[in-house]
Description:
Order of helices and strands of chain B: HEEEEHEEHEEEEHEEH
CATH topology of chain B: Ribosomal Protein S5, domain 2
Number of helices of chain B: 5
Oligomer: heterodimer
Number of domains of chain A: 1
CATH topology of chain A: Ribosomal Protein S5, domain 2
Number of strands of chain A: 10
CATH architecture of chain B: 2-Layer Sandwich
Number of helices of chain A: 4
Strand content of chain B: 35-45%
Radius of gyration of chain A: 18 Å
Distance between the termini of chain A: 54 Å
Radius of gyration of chain B: 19 Å
CATH superfamily of chain B: GHMP Kinase, N-terminal domain
Largest interface: A-B, 33 and 34 residues
Helix content of chain A: 25-40%
Distance between the termini of chain B: 40 Å
Number of strands of chain B: 12
CATH superfamily of chain A: GHMP Kinase, N-terminal domain
Shape of chain B: elongated
Number of domains of chain B: 1
CATH class of chain B: Alpha Beta
Amino acid sequence: MGYAKRTNNRGFDELRKIEAKTGVIKNADGSAYFKIGNTAAYAAVYGPRNLYPKFLQNPSTGILRCSYNMMPFSGTGERVRPGQSRRSREISLVTEKALLPVVDLKEFPNAVVDVFIELIETDAGSRCAGICAASMALADAGISMKDLVVAISVGKVDDKIAVDLDYDEEAYEGGPVSDIPIAIIPSTGEFSLLQMDGEISKEDLIKALSLCKKVVPKLYEIQKKALSEKYTKSD
Amino acid sequence: MADDLKSHLISSFEKNVRFDNRGLLDFRNVVIEYSVSKNAEGSARVKVGDTEVVVGVKLMIDKPFPDTPDEGVIMVNTEFLPMANPDFESGPPGIEAIEQARVVDRGIRESKMIDLKKLCIKKGEKVWIVSIDVCTLNDDGNLLDASALGAMAALKSARFPEYENDEINYKTHTAAKLPMKKQPVAVTVYKIGKHFFVDPSKEEEQNIDARLTITTTEDNTICALQKGGDCPLTLDDITKMLDIATKISKELRSKL
């Protein structure tokens, strides 16, 4: 019994297929595309640029402002109404907090760095895909950063701990499911995003967090490769 | 500053040269990619030079409008995402986005390309709603023509989801396509000084005197018009613009 085999024949510590590119949006100062399975995110960075209204300005540092948005046709099921929802605002907030520890905007007082994340299709793990794309886009924009940020979801489906849950697994009905999106700063191993819904024991939570650390180096390499590819391409 | 750019544009147009070396009636390279988002019933990505839009079609079931109880409903919405242009701001669609959505909508609706009666499930109670969402990724001018072309491509690629016992199963798509009869294409002809041109770059677009969006079907029937810009047009201008649009719409339609 239990969850013996993943719906898509993946190993429990195996990621879905990943595609990563940078410099995908010409107008932006930095941009990236990150696709994992059927979840695909664009991120574009504008700035540092002037911040209005003025009362939002901080004279001691530039600020980071993230916006997460699902395109109206990107969801599984019904059309998503355009514009901000409570969900998208919360995800924008946690995305900002996930990226903030690695960016240094001290040199740009009163300015803003805007990060726009757009999901073109989603199959779970969209905030993580968004954070992966955003951290690459920030690097592409030349923002001074201590490191990239790697984000992935981990969770427990029935009796098994698995990384990178897809929508079918999140909706698994044969037993308890927990979904834990995390973001890690690879060089220090620190977590800058940690959320969970579902149910899990303390021991399993620790196991899950340790398991996701195993896949972080893979994601990190993919991000770094996509960044260097833009500058090594012959054209 | 802007006036300088405009007079510079005009003097270069005199010599039939554009800043990117195109002729006045040359479109940039158009690339259409179908089915770019699996959760949408239909989708397409259109690139016109560096301008890029993604369009998705969602099919839903709802009540028809009381005045057309046996007809399906088409909705077009445009999101000028702040990702696409540093001047675009977050929030509800501005007037430019609304105008663009309505012009795209008009081309689809008035050409009668979709047989709305075939979208009726139960008269007065249930009809299919075709929701077309245009999202901009990068704005380097001429979002309008790119969006109209993207809407056509997305509609072409759309497949109905499975519908059984009054429920839509979005996970399974059938082979059934939308009941489409025509392929309207929008071409906007622009005017600066006395020069006509198509497919503006961003800087050209910001300096125009007038524009006319002309949507035509395969048999050159005109199904929608929209004049824009601050300067008026003469009948002679309009005649020239119609000729240009008819010719270019054929080129664009062949890319679909």
